[in-house]
Fold this sequence. Notes:
The chain is α/β, with parallel strands linked by helices and about 350 residues long. It folds into two domains: about 1-135, no CATH class; about 150-340, Rossmann fold (3-Layer(aba) Sandwich), CATH 3.40.50.300. Helix content is about 25%, strand content about 30%. The strands form three sheets. A six-stranded parallel β-sheet has the order 16-15-17-14-18-19, with helices on both faces. The longest helix is centred in the middle third of the chain and has 17 residues, at about 220-235. The model has no long low-confidence stretch (mean pLDDT about 95).
Amino acid sequence: MSQEYDYKASCLKRLDIRDKVTVEYSGHRPQSGDVVAVRITEVNDTYRKLDLEGGELVDLEEGDIVIGSLGNRAGVKGYIGSVPESIEKGDEIGFLGSGGVFGKYTSSAKELERPCKAEFLGYIRDGDDIRNIKDHGISKADDIKGDPRLVTVIASRMDAGKTTLATGLIEGLSEQYNVGSLKLTGSARERDRLSMYDAGSEVSLDFVDAGIPTTVEDSDIVISSAKGLINYAWENNDLDFIVIEFGAGLISNYRVREVMKDLDIKESVFSVCGAALDVMGAYGLKHVLEETDYELSFISGPITDTTVGKKTIEDNVGVPAYNAFKEDQMEKAVEKVKKDFED
């Protein structure tokens, strides 16, 4: 069946999709990354913005037909849901992520309520095959090639200020160095990647470019995707180093710690920059990193908003504390990364 649609979600940015698509239902077993068509049937005003390619946001309305992807989510402050084990045409499916991720809704943070509801119309086909974003991604890799140099930005949990810190670092570092940027974990959305690009990155990619809608996947898939992205960015651009933002928290279902533990990636990291909401988050971040043989360079995030928070971090966690919203402190953070690079 030929189907017109209103919106193509940003998770499909690497797919060439025509104004009309072939939508069919078959006995296919649903897979993460399957490209699907849905009709929005009920809107949640709290979470209704759909992210389009290039970062434009639109408000979903009842009756909108959206082309997106099946995927999994497991955020501590977001939606929790998964690819359904089976799905029939006309079944209800939830809008789990603004990048166009749909799946079976399980639960959510109390302030979000239930997600927008959608009617499953069918899979998008290309000839005899159901389209899947994994078939359009940058190649995964088993090993790191060359000698990439990596700065990592990680947090105790989501919404701790990682992107603010990453963009501040890129803005300062790009005045002297050629800097690339990657977002290796999280749920599909263009905002963070584009923010890093606009801050001065020579190239900016995320896990969607490797063909996965979220990193709530098998850890081997996420690690090999991360290595593929690192290799691609390093080999195809003249870079001094790459700033990597890890979406979600260090301990999460988004595979942050698993990627950081990989020996190949560990050998390439020369600076680890943290963000935390409170002292315990910063303390835990440092000690979990130490268990993985990493040394935390400094802490940013909401805990550094006040002089008391900064001093508490420095006295009890034992690392510098810099607030990414304050220019003089951000300059110190940039200088710390430069020193890490030179050492």
